[in-house]
Amino acid sequence: MRGLDLNGGTMLYAGTPPPGPAASLPAPPTPMSSLTPVVPSLVGQEFGRFRVVRELGRGGMGTVFLAEHTLIQKRVAIKVLHAHLAQAPELVARFLSEARTLTLVQHENVVTLYDLDSRDGRPYLVMEYLEGDSLANFARGPMAPALVVELMTQVCDALGAAHAHGIVHRDLKPANVFLVPNANGKQRVKLLDFGIAKLLSRPAGEMTTEVGVLLGTPEFMAPEQCGDGIVDARSDLYAAGVLAYLLLTGQVPFYGRTAAEILVGHLQKEPVPPHELNPAVPEALSRVLLRALAKRPDHRFASAAELKTALEASLAPPPAPSAPPLTALLRGQGTQAPVELKGEWVGRSGLFFQSTSTPPALLSEVSLVLRLPGGELPCTAQVVRHVTAEQAQAWNMSPGFGVQLRDASPAFQAQLAQLKNSTRATSAQTAAIPTPEDAQAEAVLQGFRRRLAGDPYAVLELPRDATLESVRTAAQRARGALELLKARPLSDSQRAQVDRALDRVAGALHTLGNVERRVEYDATLGNVEGIERCLAAGLTATMLEQCRRRFLAGNTGREGRAAVHRLSGDALASVGRLEEALAAYELAVRADPLDLEGLKRWRFLRARVRGSAAPR
After folding, report:
1. Fold topology of 518-610
2. Would you say domain 328-418 falls under CATH 3.40.50.2000?
3. Distance CA 268, CA 275 (A)
4. Where are the domains of the chain?
5. Which CATH homologous superfamily contains domain 11-128?
6. For residues 351 and 375, what is the distance between their CA atoms, to the nearest angstrom?
7. Identical fold, 11-128 and 134-314
8. Exposed, middle or buried: residue 585 (CB in 10 Å: 0-12, 13-18, 19+)?
C-alpha cells in the first residue's frame, strides 16, 4: 500500500513554507514525520490476531504496517498512532475521529475499516490492505480526458457517500486517492485519510478546528477553507475540480512560493481554462471544471452526483446532425409566382407544409416540385388539411396545410424512394471511406507490436529481475503513451491495436505487479532472480508456501525430482565435491523453484564456491 498520506491533514500556520510549483504534480507538503522521534520497530509484534510483517509508510499522526492474521494469513493494513502523540487527548480524539468516519461511510470507493483497538496505550486501526498505487504516483503529467473522467466519477461516488452521512473530507488530493488495478485493466478508486474530515452535524464534545490553524493542503483548498467561510460538501467539490484540473493539465490552477501566494490565488484569481493548457481537453469538460472551481460555493455544483453527471456528459459525442428539412416549390397559378415551402413527411405519401399565408383551398389540386436530397421530382397533390394559427398554437406546431400525393404508380414510388434514400446512401458511402493511418501513431504502435509478441516482461520491456517499483513505472509509462494515442485521428485498425495493447499492458501489470501472482509466474519460467525480487519485496514464507502448493498442484512430480536432486547435493557437499553439489542444487531449484529451503542451500553454496559473501 504505497503513497499513503498519514499526516492527518497538513497543518499550516502563517509563514510555514509551502510546496513550490511543480512541472507535473505539486510537491507534497513537508511531512510532520520529520518531527517524529525515532522509535523501535514494531515489525514482528502482534496486534490482536495480526502479526506485523513490514512498515508501509509513516506520517505525522501514525505509521501504517502490513500485517498478517496469525491463523488464516489474511493481510491487513494497521495504522498505529505514534507513541509520543498518544499522550495528547486532542490528537487521540482526531485519530479516533477517523475511525468513526470510516465506520459511517461504507462504500466500495472508500477504504474499509475492520477494527479499532489499543495496544500499550496506543490506539490503532485495522483496515483493508490495498495493492496498487496512489494517484500521486500513478499520474505523471497530463492524462487522457477519458481516463480522468473515469477516475473522477469514482471519486465523486466516494465523496457522495461521505456527504450523505454529513461528512466533508477536507483534504482531497492525489496522495489520498488510491488506485487498485482490476483484471480488466481498469482502476478502482479508494478514498483514504479521513483524519481531518469534519462532521457537518458535530457531536457534542468532539474536537473542533483550532482558531488560526488551517487544515488541508493549500493547492486543493476551497476559498472558504482558506478564509473564515463555512466549509461544507461543496468545498470537497472544489478540491475535486482542482484534482481533475491537475490530472488533465499536469499542473494545479494556483501555485506559488509561499502558502500565502497559493491561498490568494484561490481567493482572488481566475484559473486558466484547462483546454488552453492542454488542447486534448474538450471545451465541454473544461467548462465543467471551471464551474467546480467557482469562488462562491453556490456557483458550483450542488452535489457530487451532479458533478459526476456533468463530467460524464462532457465526453458524450455531439448529437448527430438532423437531416435537412424537406422543401418543395409550389407552382403558382395564373400570374402568381412559385412559392418555396418547408415541409415534412407524414406517412409514405403525405406532406405538411408550413405557411402563414392563405393556403390553397381544401380538396384542390396543386402542382409541386419536391426538392429531395437526391434531386427534384415534379408531382401533383391534393390539399387535405388546413391548420390555422389558432390551432397551431393550441397544438404546439406551425400553421400551414397538408397534402396527399396523387401519383401512386409503382414507377413514381420507386423514383421517390430512390431520391429520399439518397441521404442514407451518401452517409453510408462517407462512413465506408476508411480513416487513413496516423503516421505518428504508427511509429509508436510498431514498437508495441514487437513487445506484445512476448511475455509480460517483454510487454513492459523489463528484465526478469526487475523490481516491483520498476514494473509499476514501466506499466504507467506504456499506458500513458497508449492513452495519448487515443486523442489522435487513428484508423480503425490502429484504434483496435491501441485497445489490444492497453489490455496486454494491464494484464502484464496484473501478473507482475503483485508479489504472489508474479512469484507463481516466475516459477513457471524458472526465473529464480524474479522469485528473489518477490521475497525482497515482502513476500513472506507463509505466502511463498501457499504459492508453492498451487504451483506444485499444476506441476505434478516436480517436488519428488527436486528432493532427489537436493539429497544428491547434500551427499556431494558432505565429501567436498562442491561444484557437483552446486549443480545438483541448481537442478533442485529448477524443478521446485518456490522451495525456500532449496533456494537457501543453492544460494549459500554458490556464494561459497564463487568466494563471495553469503547472501542474506
Report:
1. 1.25.40
2. no
3. 21
4. 11-128, 134-314, 328-418, 442-513, 518-610
5. Phosphorylase Kinase; domain 1 (3.30.200.20)
6. 17
7. no
8. buried
Query: Which amino acid would we find at residue 76?
Result: V
Model's pTM, two decimal places? 0.56
- Say how many CA atoms lie within 13 Å of 486 toward its Cβ: 17
Any catalytic annotation for residue 232? no
The Cβ-side half-sphere exposure at 392, using a 13 Å CA radius, reads 16
Beta bridge partners of 125: 79, 116
Do residues 33 and 88 make contact, with C-beta atoms less than 8 angstroms apart?
no
Q: Is the pLDDT of residue 322 over 70?
A: no
Task: Give the C-alpha separation, 285 to 313, whole Å.
Answer: 8
Q: State the catalytic residue, choosing from 5, 133, 157, 171.
A: 171
- DSSP string for 283-331: HHHHHHHHHHT-SSGGGS-SSHHHHHHHHHHHTSPPPPPPPPPEEEEE-
94 sits in which H/E element: helix 89-104
545 pLDDT above the threshold of 80: yes
The fold of 134-314 is: Transferase(Phosphotransferase); domain 1 (1.10.510)
**Among 94, 104, 92, CA closest to 9:** 94
Cell of 170: 477536507
Nearest to 377 by CA among 386, 368, 385: 368
pLDDT bucket at 158, cuts 50 / 70 / 90 = very high
**Average pLDDT across the chain, whole number:** 81
Strand runs labelled E in 533-596: none
In Å, what is the CA distance from 350 to each residue of 251, 403, 405?
60, 6, 6
* Higher local confidence (pLDDT), 496 or 208: 496
